DNA sequence: TTAGCCTTGAAG
DNA sequence: CTTCAAGGCTAA
C-alpha cells in the first residue's frame, strides 16, 4: 500500500496544475499563482483578455493571459479577503481553522477512497482518478459551518447519532429555514468577472462543494454496506435508493440555503421542491457526468464509477431505455460543453417553475425565473458566438429533462407497487407528494 | 512581470 | 518553543 506522508503537497494547483506549495489565500495552490494573486490584488491590477475570456490556464501557458488566470483564481475559490490591506507580515488569519479542517477532510477522504476502492473492486466499481486529486474548488467556510444534515439516517438506522429535532416525522412539513447561516453565506461575493453576470456568479456560489458531497455520501454508503455485509449480500437497487435519498437531502440543503429560495415561505418552498425533485436529481446526475464523468461510465456522487454496460446488462427494458435517454442528454450537453455556470442557472430555472399551481408568491417566482433566464442569456452572449442558438439548446435540454424525469417517476412508482423500494424515506415521500397535495 | 526563495510573527 | 501562511525580495 502506497503511503505519502505529505498528503497535501502531492496535489496539483487548481489554477494551473503546477505543484502546490501550501495553502494560499483560501486553498492549496502553487507558489507562482500565490504570487500572481497577491500582486494582482495588492496593486489593484485590471487585466483584459485578448481572446474570448476562456483561455486555458496551465503551467506552460499561465503567463499568456493574466485576465483569465485571475478569473480562474477567483473561480477555484481564492479569497480576496486573505490579501491583507495593511500588508502586515507573519502571523495567522481567520482561515487557519479552515485549513486545518480541510486537511482533516482530505485525510479522511483518502482513507475512505482506499477503503472504497478495495471493497468495490470485486463488484466492478472503480474510483474516478480526477476526483482523487480533485479539480473542484475546496470547501469554503460556509460549507464547513453547515451541519451534517442526514435525518434519513435516523429512520433507516435508529442507532445512529441523534439528528436535529425538527427532522422528526414528515421530513419537509416542519422544516425551518436557518436564515442567519444562509445570509452569512452570501455576504462576501467576489467582484463580477469580466463578462460573467453577477447573478450567475451568485448562483454558482450556492452550489455545494462536490468533494464534501462525496465525503458525506461515501461515508454513508460505506456505513450502510458494512451493516449489510454482516447479514447477507448487498442489494444494488436498495443501495441506489439510498444514494438517491442522500442526494435528495443534499438538494434540499442546497435549496434552503440558496439565494431567492430562502426568501420564500415554507409552503411555496415545499411546492416547488415537490414539483421538481426528480428533475433536479437527474440534472445533478447528468451534470456530474458532463463535468467530471468519463465515457461509458456512470460517476456517482460518492466518486465511484460504474460501467454503463454493467448496468444495462442487469437492467429491465424500462430502465435500459431510461439510461439510454439519459446518456443521450449527457452526450448533447457534453457536445455543447455546458459549464458549471450554466448548470447552476439550469438548476434554478428548474426549481423556480412558475407553472406550479397555487403558489402564494407566484409573482416573485416568475420574476426569479425571468431574472435567471436573463442572466443565462447574458452569460451565453459573453461565452458563445452563436449565443441564441446555444441558449435555445439549453432550454431544450431542460424540457427533455422534464419528460425524462416523468418517466423516471413512473418507473419508481411501478417499482414501489411491486414493493421493491425500501419505504420510509425522503425519496418515497417526494414520490407521493405530487399526488397528495390538497 | 514572473516565480522561487526569504523573512516575519500570531496561533498553537 | 515550532508551524506555516502571510508579505518581501530579486534574478531572470
From TrEMBL:
One of its GO terms (biological process) is hormone-mediated signaling pathway. The keyword Metal-binding applies. It is found in: Nucleus. GO terms for cellular component: RNA polymerase II transcription regulator complex. The gene is LOC114866867. One of its GO terms (molecular function) is RNA polymerase II cis-regulatory region sequence-specific DNA binding. A phospholipid derivative binds at residues 411, 415. It comes from the Eukaryota. Keywords: DNA-binding, Metal-binding, Nucleus, Receptor, Transcription, Transcription regulation, Zinc, Zinc-finger. Residues 195-434 form the NR LBD domain. Pfam families: Hormone_recep, zf-C4. Its main location: nucleus. Residues 10-85 form the Nuclear receptor domain. Gene3D superfamilies: Erythroid Transcription Factor GATA-1, subunit A (3.30.50.10), Retinoid X Receptor (1.10.565.10). It comes from Betta splendens. Belongs to the nuclear hormone receptor family. NR5 subfamily. This is Nuclear receptor subfamily 5 group A member 2-like.
